[in-house]
Amino acid sequence: MLYKQPENADILVAHGRPSQEALPRRFTVCVWNWQKCKHKKWAGEFTKIAQAADLFLAQEVHRSCSVKNIMDQAPYYWNGAISFFSLKDKNPIGVATGCRAQPLQVAYAAAAREPVLRVPKMTLSALYPVQNTRHRLLVINIHAINFTGLKPFENNMQCTAEMLASYNGPVLLGGDFNSWNTNRRRMLQSMAKAAGLSEVTFEPDDRTRCLGRPVDYLFVRGLTVLASGVRVTDASDHNPLLARLEAA
Fold first, then answer.
1. 133 in a domain, yes or no?
2. pLDDT tens digits along 153-165
């Protein structure tokens, strides 16, 4: 095994401080793959977006001390699921969900491992209170399996479907789905449809593409889409997705 991976008890991490008791009924969400925070412009871009977003779903989070300090300056409580540790500096890498409110519950699921590198891709779920409503919002942040055949990807989507099946309230599902061919996209859309989710659309659609197909998505259930857009940036190899949403 090339990369060191955390023990099961150490996969989930949390840091930061919530700035609100509950997520606003109208809120802004950002979905963004950080590409391990490699680019010098990443910190400035993240800081700008964090000023506007109430909820943040990040993938490929390289949680070095400097990155963690920048994350903690934002008004978020962060939950993360560690996939592996970097070779050079042994910093944890995985997905992270930040919110102005602290979650009521947090869980993760590890998908099939990537070939060669043998690292699992993480799916992180968190349940948040929402202001002035009896509902709780289930937020699922996913970085889907990539360099494999269709079967591991199908298993990844089935794992996500199981998370969704156990909850009948409002849902937000977003992340990097690595849906770079027709079969993967169809499988993703089928899973979302079966769970009663609607895909958030973007116009113009400046989402990052692989083989001509978008890989980042945002799906919702029980939420009204007020506005949506893609922020074009060179601070990562992915463009951030942004949406203004309202809970029923």
1. yes
2. 888 989 899 999 9
